[in-house]
Design brief:
The protein has 192 residues and is an all-alpha fold. The protein is built from eleven helices and no strands.
């Protein structure tokens, strides 16, 4: 079982920017959260089902999560601007809406989310495309139309995003979706 912390979930749990930990393995209990990951691990080992494990994880997260700092909450409130402005305009739109410099917005993205506004825009675009592919009843989606609708330069650009986010090419992902295999990606109304 894997737990994916979406958007600012990592910062809310650990109060440490995710970028500070890149490439390093750290005992999560050393980060000073309210809960004990060692105790959580012990409880997970005796859980009788994946559903029970999920409940334990959710309860643990809820007990440890910190309230959003005002700058983080403001940034989350402006995330819909990423989907409506182009990749370059999104940063400017958020900066104008929050009355900050573009650099200050970039720093907040790195601190609270662990990635840049450009990376967030790329992820949101891919997520919207994948949701549309799932809704497509046809055996094969119209890839060319999707390329144009979501602003991909060409087929290799689209394939690159599939392999980046799902480590698989589009046709393999499509086959998994059609057979209803589990593909893990986030669903959040904040990102729509």
């Amino acid at each position: 079982m894997a737990v994916t912390l979406t958007l600012s979930g990592f910062y809310q749990l650990f109060q440490v920017p995710a970028e500070h930990l890149r490439g390093r393995f750290i005992d999560p209990d050393a980060l000073g959260t309210a809960g004990s990951f060692a105790q959580l691990w012990e409880r997970l080992q005796v859980a009788s089902s994946p559903a029970q494990m999920g409940q334990l994880l959710a309860a643990f997260y809820q007990s440890c999560v910190q309230p959003l700092p005002a700058p983080q909450a403001e940034l989350l409130g402006h995330l819909p601007l990423l989907t409506h402005a182009g990749p370059l305009g999104a940063l400017k739109a958020i900066a104008a809406a929050s009355r900050l410099s573009e650099r200050a917005v970039q720093v907040r993205f790195r601190k609270y989310f662990g990635f840049s506004a450009k990376e967030a825009t790329r992820f949101l675009r891919f997520r919207r495309l994948l949701a549309e592919v799932q809704r497509t009843p046809a055996p094969q989606p119209d890839w060319q139309a999707l390329l144009e609708r979501y602003g991909y330069y060409d087929q290799s650009h689209l394939i690159h995003d599939f392999t980046h986010f799902l480590q698989q090419p589009p046709n393999k992902v499509l086959a998994q979706l059609r057979t209803q295999e589990v593909i893990c990606f986030t669903f959040s109304s904040l990102l729509d």
